[in-house]
Structures are given as structure tokens and as C-alpha cells.
Design goal:
The structure holds 3 protein chains of 3 kinds.
Chain A: H1 3-16, H2 22-25, H3 28-43, H4 58-67, H5 71-89, H6 91-95, E1 99-103, E2 106-109, H7 110-135, H8 138-147, H9 152-181, H10 191-218, H11 235-253, H12 256-268
Antiparallel strand pairs in A: 1-2
Helix pairs in contact in A: 1-9, 3-7, 3-11, 4-7, 5-7, 8-9
Chain B: E1 6-14, E2 20-29, E3 34-39, H1 45-52, E4 60-65, E5 68-69, H2 75-81, E6 82-85, H3 89-92, H4 98-108, H5 113-126, H6 142-154, E7 160-164, H7 172-184, E8 188-192, H8 196-202, E9 205-210, E10 213-219, H9 220-223, H10 227-232
Chain C: H1 10-34, H2 39-54, E1 58-59, E2 66-67, H3 72-79, H4 81-99, H5 107-131, H6 137-166, H7 173-205, H8 207-212, H9 214-219, H10 225-249, H11 251-264, H12 268-284, H13 313-345
Antiparallel strand pairs in C: 1-2
Helix pairs in contact in C: 1-4, 1-5, 1-10, 2-4, 3-4, 3-5, 3-7, 4-5, 5-6, 6-7, 10-11, 10-12
The chains are: A mainly alpha, B alpha/beta, C mainly alpha.
Chain lengths: ~270, ~240, ~350
Amino acid sequence: MTFDEKYFDIGRLDRLSYGETFVHRLDPRAKVIGTMLFLLTVISFPKHEVAALAPFFLYPALLVAVGEIPVRFIIKKMLLVSPFAIFIGIFNPILDTRTAAVVFGVAVSAGWVSFLSILMKFALTISAGLLLIATTSFSGVCHALRRLGLPALFVSQLLFLYRYLFVLMEETMRIIRARDMRSFGKRGTGLRVFARLIGILFLRTVDRAERIYYAMHSRGFEGDMPTLKGSRIVLPDLAFLSAMVACLWFFRFFPIAEGIGRMAQGMLR
Amino acid sequence: MSHHIVEFKDVSFRYPDGTQALRGINFRITHGESVGIVGANGAGKSTLLQQINGYLMPTSGTITIGDLSLTKKTRQEIRRKVGIVFQNPDDQLFMPTVFDDVAFGPLNLGMDEASVRERVCKALSMVNGLSLRDKPPHHLSCGQKSAVAIAAVMAMEPDILAMDEPAANLDPKSRRSLIALLKTFKHSKLIASHDLDLILDVCARCIVIGDGVVVADGPSVDILSNRALLEANSLELPLSLQRR
Amino acid sequence: MHMADALLSPAVGTTLWVGTAAVTGYASKRLKREIDDRMIPLMGVLGAFIFAAQMVNFTIPGTGSSGHLGGGMILAVLLGPHAAFLVMASVLTVQALFFADGGLLALGCNIWNLAVYPCYLVYPYVYRPLAGDIHKPGRVLVASLVSVAAALQLGAFSVVVETLLSGKSELPFGAFALMMQPIHLAIGIVEGFVTAGVVNYVRGARPELLESIAVSRLLGAEVSLKRFMIAFAALTVIAGGALSWFASTHPDGLEWSIEKIAGKGELPQAYGIAAALKGFQEKTAFLRDYNFKPAGDGLKKGEAPPSWPGIEAGTSAAGIIGAAIVLGMIVLIGMGIRVFRRRQIQ
């Protein structure tokens, strides 16, 4: 993606996070905990597990549907980051050619099975992560992390970064547009120019930080970022979390897909 | 009411790199006065404002705000009385949401949560910004950001309001709203700006700074219609007074 | 490169998360005590700066392809290790959330690989000795090249180890390492040049700037190698132990990867790690007894392994059918909810 594309991409995800649906209104702590449990459960499946992963797609599907997140947007982002996982995963079928199963008369190697497993885990974990931020504002996630134990200094670091992310991106865009307008083909986009641009941006950033500090001081800042008591956990949050835990446990330890498959096979006979 | 007085007595300031920005500034602003500070770029307007709340300490001379003389010790106290709104609202709105930004000041004053919420609501309604409460600043337009920046300062209920180029980034409509808003404020106001028409509209008194000293100090209508004076200080007549 | 959730195992993932969280807490505590208030907005905005800077591309000389900045070393040189670590960690966190770069569980690994190494290992023990205290552009260049290359090598190597220990990939250690290390060496050299360029530029343009944030840099002088190695060793032991436990309850994954390595046996490093792990396993395998298949006594192609639950012809067909049905149901549910909500709005 070019710089511009990334900028609008983040902007879009950021705007989605300020929606007003049921999932958006859930307490961020519940969503963070739920997501992490989901991720842990998904990756706890053994290397060759494929079928049992299917029911887990219910979680991202529900988030997308209830949260009104555009599906294509999520899928596009998933595809963009898939190269590494695919690149590593593709060696599985190449290296592992033992036959794992004979399905409908075709011999399937264990390598393909584990590759498919990786792909499914990838889709599940990436979508869960994206949907967390798509349904929870970034500052919501940060406050949740703070209340779950992350150091306050680090959290205020995250919040500042987020706040000035778009400002800095715009400033950077202006600089590189200026560069691109004055470079012809590849000349001018080399290392030296880049280092110079980064240096300039750095100095401007430091100046900006100085002005921000001045503003903070003028409003009484004395070293500690003030925080308000956050939202409370209410019934919908507890319901959400308990439903999640129950489903995760159930899907993890009961081979649902297989069961349904057997039923279907029984019916077909 | 003495706590609204701002007095500069022979204030000079030199930057660490040797630049002498202020050379003996003298003026006195009383309760409820609206004073504009005008001058060329580099004349010392911004430096002057930075002295008012003690961000920069004068290298000589004294500054008195209300009953307090500005020293390193009294700085914090003085900051509760003087609110400064800067040129670039992005530098002033540094919290993740508008609410957090406006609450920043009151929270630092040590107020309890209920009072903080009250102050925030009051300040935001003053600038017609209640609907922006939960938005992140980067989703706001320039005019909205300026309004919120003002609210963030007003939430501390300062006695004196100082502003540095308040209308610089605003479109005509937002600028008009800002002027209307400022006219409703009864605080002592100190506005540094190139926008001479704004000064003419909002400030009854005007101080011209040139090369670090006070060049003129008097009613705005007089000063801002004095073409010779203005042009001698790299300024010109306000657009509304110029004839096409 | 970033580690991905899909290639991670819970044991490796949580171990590194715990390690990273501990370092984050440590860095926060150190900074909080000693830092100037000014650093708080500075670090925040620099995080945004690094994030934006990483999005800018430049053409790599000689290849014509475009590259991107990492930034860990630049930050460490200009801000000192603790501040630089927190800034890098925050950048990686935001990337994981907004770009899904890696994943949320792998974030622990990624922060470890891309922030802990440059800030706490390479900066104090490689860069500073090489660059010295007096600013000389030539020495800065050499120090940058070596440091960034070293940091990236460590990071890349860790990805290999983490993937291997997680057991989800068939890639043998040797081949994987052979792929990762040279690429990252090349990237490291390029970034080393950029790092030196930026550091020299900033020092030249605004020398007083670095003085004012020098306090934070001085903190770096006290990072103790001994403490770091102890923490590192502890982490390795925990990972090994957790892994053994995990392996003993899930013999499949680890067994097959180890067998692969033992079976190939051509690279000494692989042998070393495998042997170490094997030793660990034998010592801790009291939860369940299982057999280590000796190298060579493996399966022939075409033979279904008996110790492999579930992957037999009958059940796997059922599994696939079932999975397809389940996925179909999920899609229908999702679409149904969408339609329902649209109706509600109208």
C-alpha cells in the first residue's frame, strides 16, 4: 500500500470504531479479555486440526454482522498481511508429504492439512484482532488495558501516539508529496534524501512536543496524566463474556463439526 | 477587583541564544478590559504571552497578576488565573477525546469527578460544542478544534484570557462565530493577532509592540486608524477601514 | 519480519507476553522515577513520528526495490533505552491493532524481537562501545551499521526459534534460518545507513536538543548485562519447561518437528537445540509416558500414522463435511442478522 492508502485505511478503521451498535457499547475490558481468550483457544489447537476450527468463525461473523463492519474491508486487510503466514505455511505441504487421510478417493497429505490449519487460524486470529479495534475505540482499548494492569505511563504513551498519529501522518504526507513532486522516476527517493526527510520530521516533531508541553503546563500539568474513573461492567458485558467463555470451552473440547458431519453422513445413507 | 489586573513593569526577556525579544515592556490591564496586542512578526507578541503564565520567566522586570507577583513559586497559582489559547489547536488538544481535553484542566486542579463533569458541560455549552463531547480531536474541523481549545481553557474558569492568533486557521464563518463568542466573555482579555479587524471588533484597547518595546497604547479606534503608526510597524490599516 | 498468531503456540506466546509485559513494567518504573515531565508528550509524539516514518518508502540502492524503516536504534540513540523501548512497544501495539501486523498474541513476541533487543541488548553493549561519547560521524556510521545489523539478526533469529518451538510449521530450523538471516542482514545494513544519517543530521542541526533529553539517555548506562542475562535465561527455562509440559500432553506437534530435525540431522545448530529439548523432555516427561521415535524409525509415505487421533479416513471426511456445514450456517446467520438490522433501521 502506498502511504496515502495506508492513511485512509487507518482512518476508515478508526471511524468504524466510533460506531454505536450493541458490540460497540460493550465494555472494552470485556472485549479485550474475550478477544485474548479467543486467540489463545484458537492457537491451542494442534497442528493438524482443521474441522474443529470451523465453529470458531461464528465469533468474527457475529461481530461483523452486529457491529455493522464492512466484510470486504476486513477481508482486504487480512489478505494484505497474509503473505508472511502463507510463505511460511506453504512449506508444510512441500516438506510433509505423508498421507494423512483419503477423502473422497483423493489422498491428502498431512502437509496440506497443517497448511489449511494455519490458514484457518490465521483468518480467525487476524479477524478477531481487527474486529476488536473496529468495535472499540482505540482510547477504549487503552483504558481497558490500563485497568487490566498495564503501566499507566505506557498507556498514556499509547494514547498520545494515537492522538498525534493522524497529525503526523498528514505532515509526513506533505513532505513526501513535496519530495515526489520533485523527484523524477527513482531519482530523489534514495537513502540520503530519506534520511534527511526523517531528520527534518524528527526535529519538527520535537518542536511540536515542546508546544504541547507548554499547553499541558498551562493547564496545570504536574507530571501525572489525570484519569477519570471509567465505565462500569454491567449485565450485557457479563453476559457477553460468559457466553464467550462457554462457547470457547465447548467448541474447543467437543468436536462439533465432526459430529454434524457424521449426522449428515448418517442421513445421506 | 484586583485579581483581574495584569501589570508588566519594565519587563525584558532574552532567549538562551542571545536574542533580546523584549526590552522593557510596560502596561497595565484592569478588570474586564479587552486589549489587543499587535505588531510585526518577531516583534515579541508571542514571547510576551509566554511570560504571562510564567512559561518563560522575564530576565528582568516584574509581572503582577492580581495580587501575585510572578515567580517560580507562584507560577502554578498564576496558571489557575490565566488561561492561554494558542495558535494551533492541535498542540492544545492532546487528549484522546474532547471530553478528556476539556476535563484535563479541572482534573489537574484537583476537583472531584462530579464537579469536573459539570465544568466540562458548562465550558462546552459556552462554545456550542456539547455534541462533540466524545469525539476524538482528529475528527473535528478547524473551527470545531478552535472552539474546543477555548472550552478547554475556559473550563479552568480563569480570570484572564490570553489568546495567540485565535482566528488564524478559521474559515470566515468560524471566525465570525469566534468574534461573537469573544464579545460575550466578560473576562479580561489579551489577544495577540495580525487580524486587525478582529482586534477592532473585540478589543476596546490596543497595544502596538515593535522591536520588543511598547510603541503605542490606547483605544483601538484611534490606534488602528493611524495609518502612519501602523505602517511604521510593518502593519497596515484594518481591511474594514481601507478604502478600495 | 513480524511473528504471526497462526504460527504460534500458546506456550511460546504467553511466555513471551509475560516477558514483554515484565520489561514494559520495568521500563515504565525506571522512567517514571527519573524522567523530566517534558518527555511524556515527546515520547508520545515520537511514537507517532516513527509510525508515520515507517510508512515512507525509499529505494534501496542497487536493487531498486523499496524499503521501510524500523527505527528502534534511532530512538535508542536519541532517547536512551527505556524511553526508546516504550516508544517502539507502543508503535508495535498500534500496528498490531490497526494493521493486524502479526497479531495480538504475537505482539509479545514482536515487542521482544523488535524492541527489547535493540534497546536493551544491542544499544548498550554494541552501539555505545562502538560509537563512544564524542560525536564523530564516522564512528556513528560504523556503530549504526553493526548495531542495526545485529539487532535485526537477533530479531530474525528469534522469529525462527519462536516458530520452531511453536511447532506449527514444518520448516526445519536450518532452512528457515538460512532464509531469514541473510535477508535481514541486507535490510539491517540499509537501515544502519539511514540510522547514522538521521542521528548525524539531528546532532548537527540541533545539538542542544540532545543535551536536553540527555537525562533519559544516561539512564541507559546503568542497564546491567548480568540482570539482562538472568532474565533471559529465566525466560528460556520457563519456555523450555512450558514447552515440555505442553509436549507431554500433546505429543504430536513437538514430536513431529523434533523428529524432522533429528531425522535430517545435517545442521549442527539444529542438533544442538533438538538435543537440548529432548533432554528436557526426558527429564520432565513424568506426566505421561510416550515414546520418542528414534530417527529413521519413521513412517513411510502413504502410511497413516497410528498415534494420530482423528486423521483417519472415516472421521476426516465427516470432519470436512461437518466443517463445511458449520461454515455455511455461520454465513447464513451473519447475513440474517444484517438483513434483520437493516429492516429495523427502516
